[in-house]
Amino acid sequence: MSQRKLYIETYGCQMNVADSHLICGHLEGQGYVRTDTPEDADVILVNTCAVREHAEQRVWGRLSDLARYKQRNPEIVLGVVGCMAQHWRDKVWERAPYVDLVVGPDAYRRLPDLLQSVHHSQRAHDVRLDRGETYADLAPAYDGKVTAFVSIMRGCDQFCTFCIVPYVRGRERSVPAEAVLGRVRELVARGVKEVTFLGQTVNAYRHGETTFADLLRQANEIRGLERIRFTSPHPVYLTEEVIAAMAECEKVMPALHLPLQSASDAVLKRMNRQYTLAEYDRLVHQLRTAIPDLALTTDILVGFPGEREEDFQATYAYLEKTRYDAAFMFKYSPRPGTRAYKWGDPIPEEEKIRRLEAIIELQERVSAEINAQAVGSTVEVLVEGQAKRGPGWYGRSPQFKNVVFTAQRAVRPGELVRVKIADSTAHTLKGALAGGKEQ
Ligand code: SF4
To answer: Which strand (E) or helix (H) includes residue 105?
Structure first.
């Protein structure tokens, strides 16, 4: 069996992070060993994101950097995998002729064969979408952390007009519940305390009779598992059953990322989001009633074609009223291949930047105010490791807040501890260990 060294670099969302683990696990099963540097790799894979132009530009630049390893050693295989591979297909070679391998998100199973063919001849590519592929039988590599992603469904059927995902990741399909729960049990046996279920529209999960709410309830029964999270849900699939499961399952954490995109019904309609602001707002109300300590976060896209000043003001006002804990905020950039692409990019760049900066400033203030309310309280933290900057430890609260803290005794990753919060910023809570919790 060959012992070729594999280096993989990942761009984009958590689904891509999980896919990189899947690719590593699959190739390790075929005799590859993982390396953390491209210098000593035989195979260099770049797992890519096509959602925003900026991310693509970074990847094109990075590919030309990585090509220098091939100049030194032509035996090295350089591959583009993931959403950009699917989006650009064989056009990757027009931009980056030094690439050997182009593999889309539904063809990772064939990577060992494709790598073999590159080794023997020239280039290889597989960008077929496969409605049945869930990789349920392939074990992802485990990175030794106490938190882990578990992909429970793939693809998206929503076709938001700004989004390339349904074209590059194909239709929705769910991993069988037994495979999901089996994977969680394996992870728990290896020391994982928190799993995050992943899917592009994660709460669209359905396999046979098992709904997303059922899956949450079944995972909640797994001994040794402390916390369950999921991302990203779509508002149209957020049923009363899901909200009830979230409220009733003690391991499902009180944190939800619920993308809004815009608070203007006219814009939501053009985005094909399938809900009105009133429907979304009703969900927020139901969630906050059922789960009073819920932390709510969102995605906002400003400068979408046709967004008038009054549409933007509606979004601003809704953010101000709803007081999200945090938000991912972006300005629109057209993606070739999407439905909105044909509407161009009519809002001037300076105006898009003005709108974006206005909501960022608002959200920073609101996030800081919400976090400041935690000062003086004690929160439960799952310790993830040592703080990246400065002494102390790092972990997350149930509400998914970053918490850094000092401790007078040794703590270990995976431990649930109580931290007394003494200070805060818009993005972090800071404190000191207040005492452990029985596990
Ligand atoms: S729900 Fe919309 S934004 Fe999310 S992945 Fe699907 S098409 Fe893209």
So the answer is: none
Among protein residues, the one whose CA lies closest to atom 1 of ligand 1: 158
Mutate to test the pocket of ligand 1, among 49, 158, 267 (most ligand atoms within 8 A of CB): 158
Q: Is 159 in the pocket of ligand 1 (CB under 6 A)?
A: yes
The answer to whether the beta carbons of residues 419 and 379 sit under 8 Å apart is yes
Q: 160: Cβ below 6 Å to ligand 1?
A: yes
For domain 282-372, the question of CATH label 3.30.750.200 is answered with yes
Atom of ligand 1 nearest to the CA of 200: 5
pLDDT one-digit tens code per residue, 12-63: 999 999 999 999 999 999 999 999 999 999 999 999 999 988 889 999 999 9
Residue limits of CATH 2.40.50.140 in the chain? 378-436
CATH 3.40.50.12160 in the chain, residue ranges: 5-126
Establish whether residue 338 lines the binding site of ligand 1, counting it when its CB lies within 6 angstroms of any ligand atom.
no
Query: Is any ligand 1 atom within 6 A of the Cβ of residue 114?
Result: no
Residues of the chain with CATH 3.30.750.210: 142-253
- Is the beta carbon of 430 within 6 A of some atom in ligand 1? no
Distance (Å, whole) CA 66 – CA 64: 5
- Ligand 1 atom closest to the Cα of residue 157 is 6
Instruction: List pLDDT tens digits, range 386-420.
Output: 998 878 999 999 999 999 999 999 999 999 999 99
Tell me the angle at which helices 111-120 and 14-28 cross, rounded to the nearest 10 degrees.
70
CA dihedral 407, 409, 412, 418 (to 10 degrees): -50
User: For residues 26 and 104, what is the distance between their CA atoms, to the nearest angstrom?
Assistant: 15
- pTM summary value: 0.95
| Strands 124-126 and 147-151, bridge-based pairing | unpaired
Q: What is the pLDDT of residues 106-148, one digit of tens each?
A: 999 999 999 998 876 689 999 999 999 999 999 999 999 999 9
Closest atom of ligand 1 to 169 CA is 5
Is the domain 142-253 a CATH 3.30.750.210 member? yes
Evaluate whether the domain defined by 5-126 bears CATH number 3.10.25.10.
Answer: no
Residue 357 CB contacts under 8 Å (≥ 6 apart), including other chains: none
Q: Where in the chain is the domain with CATH 3.30.750.200?
A: 282-372
What is the CATH architecture assignment of 378-436?
Beta Barrel (2.40)
